[in-house]
Design a protein that fits this description.
With 298 residues, the protein is mainly alpha-helical. The protein is built from 8 helices and 2 strands.
C-alpha cells in the first residue's frame, strides 16, 4: 500500500453495509423460520393419515429441509454481521456461494442430460401415481397440475395403469380409467367424477376426445418455454437474492479487513493522545468516499 493511501471506507458506508447485511440476513432468517414451521405442521398432519415417507412424495419433508437450511445459514449471517466476525462472515459467504454454484450446476446438468432428467421425473411421478389415493399431498399436487396444465399422468395418460384402483385388472368402476382431473370438461357443466371411465381401453386418438392424453412433464415444460418471462422471473427470484447476499458479504468482509489492517498498521495508535493523533482526510473523488484517498499534507 502506498504511503498515505487510505484503503477503507468512511464510517457511513461501513454502517450502511452492516445495516443492509443485518436486514438481509434477518429477513431470510424469518422466512426460513416460517418455512420450517409450515413444513413441521404439514408433516404432523401428513403423519395423521399414515401417508408415504418418500422425500419426493412428501412436500412437507422438502419444506423442513429448506427451512432448516435457510434458518441456519441466515442465523450465521445475522450473528456474523452483528459481531463483525470474519470467520462467520466468510462461512456465510462461502455457503451462499456454494448453494448458488450447486443450483447453477444442477440446472446446467439437467439441461445437458434433459432426456435422463425427464425419465427421472416420470419415474418419480409413476411412484406417486401408484400411491395416489394414499398420499394426500401428492394427490392434491397432481390434481392441480392435471387441471391447470391440461395433462394426464407423467409421460402420458397410460401411466395411471400403475395405480391399483385404475389398473385394467382391478375391480370396481375406476378400473382402466383415469381421475376426473384428466377430463376435458365444460366449465358450465356439472362435474362427473367418472368422466375418465375406461379411458385406457381406447387408443390415443379416441381417448383424446374426452381426456387429456399428453403427459404432465411435457405440458409443464412447454408452458414454461411459452412463458419464458415467468420462467426468467422465477429463476431471478431464486438466484438473485443469493447473489446479492454473496456480494454484500464480500463487500462487508473487505471493509472489515481494511479497517483491521489500517488499525494494526497505525503505530502507537493506543499511546497517542487524541489531540495529537493525525486525522485522515479522504479525497473528494469516489462514490460515498469509498475509493482510496490520500492523507492531507496540510
Amino acid at each position: 500500500m502506498a504511503a498515505g493511501e487510505v484503503r477503507y471506507c468512511s464510517r457511513f458506508p461501513y454502517l450502511c453495509l452492516k445495516f443492509t447485511l443485518i436486514v438481509y440476513s434477518t429477513i431470510f432468517w424469518l422466512i426460513g423460520a416460517l418455512v420450517l414451521a409450515i413444513g413441521i405442521y404439514a408433516e404432523v398432519e401428513r403423519q395423521k393419515y399414515k401417508t408415504l415417507h418418500g422425500a419426493f412424495l412428501a412436500p412437507a419433508i422438502i419444506l423442513i429441509l429448506l427451512g432448516v437450511l435457510m434458518f441456519v445459514v441466515s442465523f450465521i449471517g445475522v450473528l456474523a454481521s452483528l459481531r463483525d466476525n470474519l470467520c462467520l462472515l466468510k462461512a456465510f459467504m462461502y455457503i451462499l456461494g456454494l448453494c448458488l454454484l450447486l443450483e447453477l450446476t444442477g440446472g446446467i446438468i439437467a439441461l445437458i442430460f434433459r432426456n435422463q432428467t425427464m425419465e427421472f421425473l416420470n419415474k418419480n411421478i409413476r411412484k406417486g401415481i401408484r400411491n395416489y389415493y394414499d398420499d394426500l399431498d401428492f394427490k392434491n399436487i397432481m390434481d392441480f397440475v392435471q387441471k391447470q396444465f391440461k395433462c394426464c399422468g407423467g409421460a402420458e395418460y397410460m401411466d395411471w395403469e400403475k395405480n391399483e384402483y385404475h389398473s385394467c385388472s382391478a375391480p370396481g368402476p375406476l378400473a382402466c380409467g383415469v381421475p376426473y382431473t384428466c377430463c376435458i370438461t365444460n366449465k358450465t357443466a356439472v362435474m362427473n367424477t367418472l368422466c375418465g371411465y375406461h379411458a385406457m381401453k381406447f387408443q390415443r386418438q379416441e381417448a383424446q376426445r374426452f381426456i387429456y392424453v399428453r403427459g404432465c412433464t411435457d405440458a409443464v415444460i412447454i408452458w414454461f418455454l411459452d412463458n419464458y418471462t415467468i420462467m426468467a422471473g422465477a429463476l431471478l427470484g431464486i438466484l438473485l437474492p443469493q447473489f446479492i447476499g454473496v456480494l454484500l458479504s464480500l463487500l462487508y468482509i473487505t471493509r472489515v479487513e481494511d479497517m483491521i489492517s489500517e488499525w494494526n498498521n497505525s503505530t502507537n495508535v493506543l499511546l497517542e493522545d487524541e489531540t495529537t493523533r493525525p486525522e485522515i482526510e479522504f479525497s473528494s473523488v469516489g462514490c460515498c468516499r469509498c475509493y482510496p484517498g490520500q492523507e492531507s499534507s496540510a
